[in-house]
Fold this protein.
Amino acid sequence: MSLVAYEVSQGIAILTLNNAPANAYSTPMFKELDAAILDARWDPAVDVILITGAGDKFFCAGADIDMLSGMDPDTKYYFCLHANETLLRLEHTPKLVISALNGHCVGGGLEVAMAADIRVAPANSKSKVGLPEVSLGVLPGTGGTQRLARMVGQTRAIELMAEGRLMSVVEASEYGLINRLLAGDDFKSTALEYARKFCRPGTSSRAIGHIKRAVRSGTDLPLESGLALERELQQRLFAGNDAVEGLAAFREKRDPQFTG
């Protein structure tokens, strides 16, 4: 059985973490996730990557504790290193990534979700969100300390991680950890519908990819360097078909048909 189910539907690569009962991740799962990210990156038919969990109780409960307990310190280090590399690959892929939080999203599960560009959850969800690693005597070591601080600020991130507190999805959205709470009885269908609005032909997936690259790569640079990157990415868009189509559609007062 695959630990990361992979499916492409209407421009969306759906990556489903699949390890009952809590979709906890292991080295084999991260190897499959890494391969799936590359498949989606290289597939010209894919505009958006959507990551979710199997079932309706857990997005991901983080690392498999039984697996970690059996590892020696060096193996644990390489496990964390590969997880970091995989999530960086996800961030650097110039396609929009959405995490659809179908259930509890805690520990390393939240670290996976934070590597996405957008996080969505059901509006009526009773699931919990947080980084409780301090209760195990460790820190959030799959990017949690760095991504959370960049999202909510240093002092608030330290407070949340030091407390190890689990939040509701409503509170997580108030912190900015969840971008959108989606209403509807079938969350996965609603999440796919939301993701499709970022796909061709109605939206320029190429422009979205360049926006992502400008933000991900540019905001850690000095302003002048970030502006230079923005100009170069804009020039690449001006040289492509989508910019020609978008400008023409605006002038002709019609809906654009983007090809990417």
